[in-house]
Amino acid sequence: MSTHPTHMAKSKQIRSALSAYRVMAIVAGIALFILITEMVMKYGFGMDNFLTRNWSYIHGFIYMGYAASVANLGLKSAWGLRRIVLHLLAGFVPVLPWVAEHRVNQETTALLQGAHLAGDPATAQDGQPA
Predict the structure, then answer these.
(1) How is the chain split into domains, by residue range?
(2) I need a surface site. Which of 61, 111, 112, 124 has the fewest CB within 10 A?
């Protein structure tokens, strides 16, 4: 009996999605801190420079990458819509993307390891863990 839903993607696909998610969660968390700094500079001190003029747009693109990585991992790991939405919202709270990334990494790694140990053929390729 498998330890994961049958509609979950193959282990190799999930690992790839997890790697992309981890990178984007870290980058999105950093970008969020820069956005807060930019907003304080712009609205608190009235500063006008490259950062205050352009960072909001840059941060928006970074967040879209984060959102795509959340959706990709969520769909491949068979998360429910609620969990995907909560992870998307985590991208709006400082530090939370890093906390979520840590937990997701632990859970997904344990899930993949458990599936491999249970002998699930979807987690192995040529006798090797995917």
Answers:
(1) 11-111
(2) 61
Residue 124 has φ and ψ, to the nearest 5°, of: -125, 150
Alpha helices in 43-121 (DSSP H): 50-76, 81-90, 96-117
In this predicted structure, the answer to whether residue 11 has a pLDDT above a threshold of 50 is yes
Count CB-CB contacts under 10 A for residue 73.
26
Condensed to tens digits (0 to 9), the pLDDT of residues 73-127 reads 999 999 999 999 999 999 999 999 999 999 999 999 998 887 655 565 554 443 4
| pTM (two decimals) | 0.80
Local structure of 129: helix, strand or coil: strand
Burial class (CB in 10 A: 0-12, 13-18, 19+), 126: exposed
Give the span between the Cα atoms of 21 and 25, in whole angstroms.
6
In the chain the first and final C-alpha atoms are separated, in Å, by 19
